[in-house]
Write a structure and sequence with these properties.
Number of strands: 8
Shape: elongated
Strand content: 35-45%
Organism: Paractinoplanes brasiliensis
Helix content: 10-25%
Structural class: alpha+beta
Number of domains: 1
Radius of gyration: 15 Å
CATH topology: Jelly Rolls
Order of helices and strands: EEHEEHHEEEE
Protein name: Secondary thiamine-phosphate synthase enzyme
CATH superfamily: YjbQ-like
Distance between the termini: 10 Å
Family: Belongs to the UPF0047 family.
CATH architecture: Sandwich
Pfam families: YjbQ
Largest sheet: 5 strands, antiparallel
Number of helices: 3
Length: 134
């Protein structure tokens, strides 16, 4: 198994950040197998979605509706509504596993690998790529 950790700057506002290129660079020298992507944070997740056509903003809007950033959360340290950030990984998990065929991630035409981070208190995130040969 080969693994690599990268740092992604997410900033101070909720963001859906496309990390497909970084994942492709990691997997390009491999053959067939499985790419596992993991975000070792309690307040971020990974989504496989279309980007660039508004879906990333739609995802953030859906998160705001499902998990509003307000003071109703019991988990209260950090910025206002930070408790919702700790609930986020229950809906958007911190991991994804994708097939790699001939060194290429087998994503669908409009699919991208995206880091979803609603926690503005931490402007940088770690992402671990691991390749398991087939």
């Amino acid at each position: 198994m080969r693994t690599e950790v990268i740092t992604i700057r997410t900033g101070s506002r909720p963001v859906v950040r496309d990390i497909t290129r970084e994942a492709e660079r990691f997997a390009e020298s491999e053959g067939d197998g499985l790419l596992h992507v993991f975000v070792p944070h309690a307040t971020a997740g990974l989504a496989i979605i279309e980007t660039g056509a508004g879906s990333d903003d739609d995802l953030l809007a859906a998160i705001d509706q499902l998990l509003p950033a307000e003071d109703r959360w019991r988990h209260r340290h950090g910025s206002k509504g930070h408790g919702r950030d700790h609930v986020l990984p229950a809906w958007i998990p911190p991991y994804a596993s994708l097939p790699v065929i001939g060194g290429r991630i087998a994503l669908g035409t409009w699919q991208s690998i995206c880091l979803v981070d609603t926690n503005g208190d931490n402007p940088e995130r770690q992402v671990r790529f691991s390749f398991l040969p087939g």
